[in-house]
C-alpha cells in the first residue's frame, strides 16, 4: 500500500496530472465574490461537464485571481481559452493569460502532502462557491467565524492537542503582523469557544447549520487526518505544525479575509489558547 489511500491520490492530487495556472485580471469596480458566483463558478462547471478541464482551485491575487486547473498537456485547453476570451470581450474580465504553476511542495510537506493539499484546495474552492451562492447572511464577522471553524477542523483532524494548536497559531502570526491595539476579552472568549466547540455535534444536523458548513468542515478534518497519517509514517518533509500553518494562510486567502482581520484573529486565537487574560 502506498503512503496515501486511493481516494486521497485520485480526487485532486495532481501528483501525476498536469496543472496550468490561469491569471485573471478583473475590471475595476468588480467585486471578486461577485465574479466568482456570476462567472467563474458557472464557467468552470461548463468546462468540467465538457471534460475540457479536471478539478480546479483558486487563490485571490489582486487585481484578480489565480486559478489552477488540471489539464491534459499542461496548457489551457481550447475550450477554456475560448470561454475566457469571451469574458474579456464582454468586459467581465480585463485580461487573462496562462502561467506556469509552481507548487509549493516543500512548504506543504513534500509530494504526498501536496496531494493532500490539492484535494483540500479543490474542495475548499467548491465549498466557497456553495457558500457564496447559498448564503443570505454573509458578513465579515460570519466569515471570520467560518475561518476559525475551518482551521479548528484541520488541526483536530491532524490530532494536534490544544497547545500544539496554539503553536500553529503562533507560527501563522509570524506571517501576519499584529494590528495595533489589544483585543478585548469578549473577542478572545468568543474565539476560544469557536476553537473548542464540538464541531461534529455542531454539524451533525445537515439543516442546522446549513449543509455546506458540515461539508466544508469535514473537508478540513479529512485533510488534517491525512496529514496525521503521513506524519505517523515519517512521510512529511516538514513538521506537521509548520505545514498546518501554511494551510491557514491559503485557506484564509480563499475565504477573502483581509490581512488585518487575519492578524486580529491569529492574535485572539493565540491569547485564547494560552489562557492569557486581557489587562
What does this structure look like?
- By secondary structure, the chain is of the alpha+beta class.
- The protein folds into two domains: 6-99, ACT domain (Alpha-Beta Plaits), CATH 3.30.70.260; 111-273, no CATH class.
- Helix content is 57%, strand content 10%.
- The protein has eleven helices and four strands, in the order H-E-H-E-E-H-E-H-H-H-H-H-H-H-H.
- A four-stranded antiparallel sheet has the order 2-3-1-4.
- Helix 4 (111-134) packs antiparallel against helix 9, helix 4 packs parallel to helix 10 and helix 6 runs antiparallel to helix 11.
- The longest helix is centred in the middle third of the chain and has 24 residues, at 111-134.
- It is globular, with a radius of gyration of 19 Å.
- The termini are far apart.
Amino acid at each position: 500500500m502506498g503512503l496515501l489511500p486511493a481516494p486521497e491520490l485520485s480526487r485532486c492530487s495532481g501528483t501525476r496530472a498536469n496543472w496550468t495556472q490561469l491569471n485573471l485580471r478583473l475590471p475595476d469596480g468588480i467585486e471578486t465574490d461577485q465574479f466568482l458566483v456570476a462567472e467563474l463558478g458557472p464557467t468552470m462547471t461548463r468546462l468540467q461537464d465538457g471534460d475540457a478541464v479536471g478539478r480546479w482551485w483558486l487563490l485571490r491575487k489582486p487585481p484578480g485571481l489565480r486559478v489552477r486547473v488540471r489539464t491534459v498537456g499542461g496548457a489551457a485547453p481550447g475550450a477554456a481559452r475560448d470561454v475566457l476570451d469571451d469574458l474579456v470581450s464582454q468586459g467581465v474580465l480585463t485580461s487573462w493569460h496562462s502561467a506556469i504553476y509552481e507548487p509549493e511542495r516543500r512548504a506543504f510537506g513534500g509530494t504526498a502532502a501536496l496531494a493532500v493539499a490539492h484535494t483540500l484546495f479543490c474542495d475548499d474552492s467548491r465549498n466557497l462557491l456553495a457558500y457564496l451562492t447559498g448564503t443570505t447572511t454573509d458578513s465579515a464577522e460570519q466569515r471570520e467565524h467560518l475561518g476559525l471553524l475551518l482551521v479548528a477542523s484541520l488541526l483536530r483532524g491532524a490530532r494536534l492537542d490544544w497547545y500544539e494548536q496554539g503553536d500553529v497559531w503562533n507560527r501563522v502570526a509570524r506571517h501576519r503582523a499584529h494590528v495595533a491595539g489589544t483585543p478585548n476579552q469578549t473577542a478572545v472568549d468568543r474565539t476560544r469557544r469557536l476553537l473548542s466547540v464540538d464541531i461534529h455535534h455542531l454539524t451533525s444536523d445537515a439543516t442546522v447549520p446549513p449543509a455546506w458548513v458540515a461539508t466544508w468542515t469535514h473537508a478540513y478534518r479529512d485533510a488534517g487526518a491525512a496529514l496525521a497519517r503521513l506524519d505517523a509514517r515519517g512521510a512529511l518533509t516538514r513538521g506537521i505544525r509548520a505545514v498546518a500553518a501554511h494551510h491557514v494562510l491559503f485557506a484564509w486567502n480563499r475565504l477573502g479575509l483581509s490581512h488585518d482581520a487575519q492578524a486580529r484573529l491569529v492574535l485572539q486565537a493565540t491569547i485564547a489558547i494560552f489562557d492569557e487574560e486581557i489587562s
